[in-house]
Amino acid sequence: MSDYLRNPARREFLKSTALAAAGTSLLGVSAAVAPAPATNAIEVGPSGIPLRGFGKTGHKLPLLGMGGSAMTQIFIQAYGVPLLSMDDRVAMVRHAYDSGIRYFDTARVYGESEQIMGKGLKGVRDNCYVATKCHIADPTKVRATLEKSLKELDMDYVDCVQVHSPCIEAVGFDGAMKIHAELAKLRDEKLLRFIGLTTHVAFETVCKMIQTGGFDQVLLAYGYVRKGMDTMLSNRKIEHRELCLANAAERGMAIVAMKVMGANMLSHNAKKMVPDYDAERLAKIPPAAIRWVLQDERVSMLNIGVSMPSDIDKNLAVVRGDTKFTNQDRDLLADFSSRLYDLDAVKALKVS
Q1: What is d(CA 47, CA 52) in angstroms, rounded to the nearest whole number?
Q2: Crossing angle for the helix pair 285-294 and 327-341, nearest 10 degrees?
């Protein structure tokens, strides 16, 4: 049993919203310890994974998280691998936990993802940071969608609910802030502890939302390949993404990077997209993509979707090793992306 689970006082803190003020972390730090500053200085946890401060939440977490979209029936085809059975996917979540991962990201719109996460974390939920998303554009339906998420997860609270990118894109700043207001009410009822927001492409709107000071974390498409969900990002979008990063860091928010693998352009599908690429060099691309993002010390967490247990093992091997981004990494990513960007399928993508 972990130190965290042995600590009954810690479990009591989780039942209130006083956790961050108490200066505790998800790694079993006693409530008597003074709060650690929200710093991203390198510190290695018991599992061998480097820790980074998770913004103003007061936590330090292993910097590799598990994304919940790449293992679902809705999205698996885009990731280029077979869909595992339900039992195997539940076991994969527990494998991530047993390997030291403590941040688990999911969403209602990911189909069975919440159910898989809930089953995989049964019995260890209080030792994890669980984030889901609210994609609903109608403020009157926010409670219902969160209650549905909690039922699917089989949990009585989540650590964070994020206003999801499709909602922000649909209703803009004013509409998304109405969703935030409803989430704040549910936070008061202890159904969630923190409020976040996500975006693949709506960086200008998200930057404005960040500036309100009402959010604890932000999940951004942030990888070497300029890929959103189904678009390529223009220079203007990249500039606004940088403003999001700067403003979030200034406000002490946790910053979570998604699309680290270019929405899987640099992972399982890489071989299919550029089939004649040298196999040995191909295997080095995902580690290089991870190290590229880790150059930015403002990033609190890499939220990487996984489809196979081997994805977890390979990603963990990278973050447990030397994470310095090298010239060899740079040359490799530049060479492969030059081939990637020249593909008709990539050229056909909308540039936003």
Answers
A1: 14
A2: 110
